[in-house]
Amino acid sequence: MVFDIDCMCTFDVLECWEDVRRIEKYEDKFGSLVFQKLFERSPPLKLLFGFPIDVDPTSPSVQKSPRFTTHARFLTSMLDRTVNVLGPDIDLLAEILSASAKKHIRFGLEVEHFAYMSDVFIESLSELLGDRFTSMRRDSWQTVLDEIRTEMVKSMNLEKAVFASWSKVKEIPNYREVAGSKLFHSMFLKCPDSKVPFGIPLDADPDSPTVRNSLAFRVHSVRFVDMLDRALTMMEAKHLSEEMIRLGAKHGKMGVTPSMFQSLCEALLQTLGEILPEHAWDEDTREAWFLMFSKLSTQMIKAMP
């Protein structure tokens, strides 16, 4: 991920956010303003966050409700984490925005909801800071928020592409056996050394019925599909990284090496391209799967010797 933000712009945003943080109970005040303005602009959003569509977002009963304050504080903390890593750690920023995108998908937010997010954030900052929110600061925030929105929308679209295509895979009769056998066959052809960790002799022919019908081949191919399914289910979970590291350590002991993951990735993409309907597999979906697999495999490789 490359952010097109210069140093002065970053400095303006950081300095401005420090002014916000000096405000008493800024977590509540900023988040409340944002949600109030969001609900006013798009009343259906109230339903996504657990409020009746006819509720008045400015009423004390709403503003003081535990649900509203929880959402308000979470939004402020999310922006706080994002601002804190603007300069020093772009990779960490990418992870934060990706995680945020997943949460927004879970809530049911759509890409079009981001069209007015920048305006709402800037209006809230202006209301909180008054004259301290100068035109220069406004321009800097606009630049940063536009970049954040672009990255989050991209992440949301990638996540949706992976989930939608995987749902299509699971509609295939015996998809675990179909996908798993194709994937392992392809991987063994691309990387013969990968046969050994899964109990297949190095000189065995992946096309032979002896290999394709062996217990080791059938068990491991299905297990991989089950593992992938669990990983996709956990994409929004807090402990996904720990689970991938655990799996990495386990497969490292089996003899799987980091160099084998490239062949596995190629085999996965080839398999998906072969078993999915043509309308469900395009370049964008392929890129989404590549990025998803790269993220998961990187975490697994960390635990390997």
Automatic annotation (TrEMBL):
This is Involved in oxygen transport in the brain. Hexacoordinate globin. Belongs to the globin family. One of its GO terms (molecular function) is metal ion binding. Residues 1-151, 153-305 form the Globin domain. It comes from the Eukaryota. The keyword Ion transport does not apply. It comes from Seminavis robusta. SUPFAM superfamilies: Globin-like.
